[in-house]
Amino acid sequence: MRAAVHTAPNEPMRIEDLTDPHPKAGEVAIDVRSCGACHTDLHVLKGELPFPTPSVLGHEVAGVISEVGPGVANLRVGDPVITSFIMPCGTCAQCSRGNEDLCVDFFAYNRGKGQLYDGETRLFRPDGEPVWMYSMGGLSERCVTPATSAYRVPEGVELTDVASVGCSTMTAYGALRHAANVQVGDTVAVVAAGGVGSALIQLATTFGASEVIAVDVATDKLAAARSLGATRTVNSAEVDAAEAIRDLTGGRGVDVAFEALGNVTTFGIARDSVVEGGQVVIVGIAPRGTSAEFDLATIARRKLQIKGSYGAKPRRDMPVLLDLVAKGKLRPQDAISRRYSFDEVQDAYDALNRGETRGRAVVDVS
């Protein structure tokens, strides 16, 4: 099979022929149809998040089950599926408590070493050299993942429209539902209207937020945010964004501000735009070692809540999201701004690095 192989930080990915991967117990193989281009992959490509090489990135996968490992009962060959980027082991202390977004084995094996939970990869070069996996390694024609991260796509849903549900949409849902628990009538700011930000805007509307204020530096991204449900927009390249948000909310600020980029500047906007007692939810993944400032006295006096959110709880939340898609209440395809062929995979990430991608870009693998 062909795969886009990451060989070194700041070097272009190379399309290589790897041996076909096969599932072991509790796993499935997926013939990949499309894979979303995520900013977290970009951090790895640039060396901002340490990860072993050679490796295959890509964790927003839509495809068809092509092989089922021993012990898998809920999926069959031929099933159309999407994957969650968090691959819960299902047995560690955190998974047992329902905290799949904190799965111990996921971070220790996959994010730490590029392995699945037997301590091995499923990807190899023809000479036998191991190739490490970032999640399931979806920038390839075939990938292997634990069955706990594969979810059948409902009938009538176009498979290549929903790849991003497994990361950007799931991440947004986790932030809204579990970190902030947004309620009907809440006012929300989404700072950075990229892939995750676009999903936050769509879902905040679904959750019943009375105001959804999108903040970005690009006019085309703000226009796209309005089409996805943002009620107001603020261009932070032109005005003091936090002050503008307070003005738009009658001087009080928003109930919840989501930081969706992983950037010191956008964190500052989110921090300064919430009402007393408000919530600042950090969703964007920053390069390792990034630090932001806040005044402890201000946090105490204003009772600010600063929270982190990483993904969601796949086995609980992915069926909910797919049901919303099937009912037409969530349209991830509306956030897709461009599709790339597999041979253009590096172009997709170069455009993302230049800040040119509105919403989500998708790589059509086959």
Automatic annotation (TrEMBL):
<dbReference type="Pfam" id="PF00107">
    <property type="entry name" value="ADH_zinc_N"/>
</dbReference>
<keyword id="KW-0479">Metal-binding</keyword>
<dbReference type="InterPro" id="IPR020843">
    <property type="entry name" value="ER"/>
</dbReference>
<protein>
    <submittedName>
        <fullName>Alcohol dehydrogenase catalytic domain-containing protein</fullName>
    </submittedName>
</protein>
<dbReference type="InterPro" id="IPR002328">
    <property type="entry name" value="ADH_Zn_CS"/>
</dbReference>
<dbReference type="InterPro" id="IPR013154">
    <property type="entry name" value="ADH-like_N"/>
</dbReference>
<comment type="similarity">
    <text>Belongs to the zinc-containing alcohol dehydrogenase family.</text>
</comment>
<dbReference type="InterPro" id="IPR036291">
    <property type="entry name" value="NAD(P)-bd_dom_sf"/>
</dbReference>
<dbReference type="InterPro" id="IPR013149">
    <property type="entry name" value="ADH-like_C"/>
</dbReference>
<feature type="domain" description="Enoyl reductase (ER)">
    <location>
        <begin position="8"/>
        <end position="363"/>
    </location>
</feature>
<feature type="compositionally biased region" description="Basic and acidic residues">
    <location>
        <begin position="13"/>
        <end position="22"/>
    </location>
</feature>
<keyword id="KW-0862">Zinc</keyword>
<dbReference type="InterPro" id="IPR011032">
    <property type="entry name" value="GroES-like_sf"/>
</dbReference>
<dbReference type="GO" id="GO:0016491">
    <property type="term" value="F:oxidoreductase activity"/>
</dbReference>
<dbReference type="GO" id="GO:0008270">
    <property type="term" value="F:zinc ion binding"/>
</dbReference>
<feature type="region of interest" description="Disordered">
    <location>
        <begin position="1"/>
        <end position="22"/>
    </location>
</feature>
<dbReference type="Pfam" id="PF08240">
    <property type="entry name" value="ADH_N"/>
</dbReference>
<keyword id="KW-0560">Oxidoreductase</keyword>
